[in-house]
Every structure is written in C-alpha cells, then in structure tokens.
Design goal:
alpha/beta, 374 residues, TIM Barrel, 11 helices, single chain, DNA polymerase, domain 1, 33% helix
Amino acid sequence: MDERHPLIGLSTTELRSALAAAGVPEKAAPMRARQLWNWIYVHGARDFGAMSNLAKEFRALSADTFSLARPEIVSEQISNDGTRKWLLRSGGQEFETVFIPEPGRGTLCVSSQVGCTLNCRFCHTGTQRLVRNLTPGEIVGQVMVARDRLSDWPSTGESRRLTNVVMMGMGEPLYNFDNVKAALAIVADGDGLALSKRRITLSTAGVVPMIPRAGAEIGSALAISLHAVRDEVRDVLVPLNKKYPLAQLLGACRAYPGLSNARRITFEYVMLKGVNDSLAEARELVRLIAGIPAKINLIPFNPWPGAPHECSDWAQIEKFAEIVNRAGYASPVRTPRGRDIMAACGQLKSESLKQRASERMAEFRSAELVRMPS
C-alpha cells in the first residue's frame, strides 16, 4: 500500500499545510504550493521528476512524501457512438464515470458516491446500496483520469475535449455536500482544472434544505431530477419526494441564488410509458414551473436488466415536447448515448457492496485462523 500523502483533492491551504508538515520552510511553502498546483491541475503531471522548474531536492522530497495517484482504471469501454465509460477503483471500492463527446464540447458525468440511498425506481444505481461517499480527491480524480485518457492536457488549452462537468453519476451530490463543494472548487479554479462554473452542473433528486447552500457556496448550474408532476407518482419514482414534496422542491428552485434567464434551472424528466408521459402531465409540468427560468430535458428511459419500466413511445415523447415547447420552454429530447455499454443516463452501477460489521469480523477471524501456527 502506498503510504505517501495524496495531493489530489487538497485545497491550496491544505496543500501548503502538507508541505509545511513535510519540512518545507514556512516562507517557501506558498510558492511551492502554487508551483505544485500548476503542475498537477494545469499540466496533469503524474511524476514529480517531470516538474522541471522545481529544485531537485524538493522534487526528491515530494516523491518520497506525496502521491499524485488517480483512481485506478479497472476497465474502459467505448460505445459505438464514441461515449466512454471508465470503471474506477479507489480505497477498495469501485465507481463509474462517463465521457460524452459532442460537436464542439465534451461532457464528463461524474459520480459523488459509491452506490446511492435514494432508490429511484428508474435508476440502475438506485439498486445498489450506498457504500460510502467519495472524497474530494476521488471526485477530482475522475476529471483527471478522463483528461489523461483523452490526452487533454493542459487544462487551459484552447482545444480541450473535456469542456463540461455534470454531477449526474452515481450518488446524490447534496448528500456528500462538503466533498463535492471542495472538489468543484478545484474543477472551477482558473489556475486549476479551469472549467467555469457555468460549465459545471450539479444534479439533485431534491434535497431541499441543501439547495440554497449549493447555490450560495458552490455556484454551479442546477439540475433537478423531477420526473413527475404529481406527488403520488413522484413518491414512487423518487422516494425522497415523501420527505420533500413538490411544493417544497419548487419553492427552493424559485429561491435558488443567482437564478435568471442567463442561469436557468434544468428539469430532468425521464419518459416512462404509461407512468408520467400523458399530455395532461405535460400541461401540468408547464403549470408547475411557471415563472422559473428553466429548460426541460426529456430523457427517453434507458433500460437495464430487471428494470420495472419501459420507455415511452417516440410519438408520445414528441407530443409531450411540443406542449412544453409551445409554452416557451426549451425542451430538447436527450439522445440516448452509450446504451450499448450501459453508460446512458440511469444505467450506472458498480459491483462494490457495503459489508456488514458481522461479515467483516468473520473475514477477520478467518484470516487470523489462517495465520495461526499449526
């Protein structure tokens, strides 16, 4: 096991403290921290030896003390449409991240947790129990792995392939608020990974009390996993609705800090045949969001093994979209990407499982028995 201190995911203040603890003189620590920050996040350095403007002695100290390791790539799949999915491992647990290339842009779908607690009925991740929150380093590390694999350094280059980040992977970002906030500060740092906040979107199923904090402290674009316009339907599709029903959720959206026509909320609406796709529900959707600067992403349901729903017929999706469009809301129908590699919206899942304490103790005792002399 690598016992060196990982640097990826540390704030600039934490990085300076780590250097001071390693013996770097207090006066030199701020400058060294800025130099390391630039090498790590602008140039994507993976080896201290490549940091040519640092003193040889400092490079040796850093190599002995610190690690630049990203999450390990367990597997990489490339879809027929160019979408890439990486299964990553860190701290003994696995999680997925997906890169979606489009003309003029490339979006990375980033995970915030291993598993999820929300049990949304249309989402494959929801069938996997929550294992743990991802650390800031593991969240930032997903962006760095993608840039590595895409040969997309420096982060400030004009022809970057990765241009947008969406916190729409595994997990509920607002249930890992502090780590997500710390990670996105690095992603949005102009001297770091250098993606502006308008190119970062945080998606939530509706953790109402945390939405104002997200706007005030993170400042990214906001997406809401809506998926239903009546509480009795959303209670089933998104069980979190029982705790924070539609009226509370939409109230938080209307009060989102910085909300304007230039900074609209995206409402995500997965199209489920015979469940939430009637034209009456399209009209109710328009009524519900009236007065909120918004756009609506209509998402054809992406199937997964054992899924309890079917995708709405395409003709029905088009009729639904027409009603929303006529009301003045942009309502693009999201083209499914990466379905052939289970990388589409709602299809992510890893094999990591949360062990009960009794199971861990049984494994420990078995290992002790193996080590005992005969």
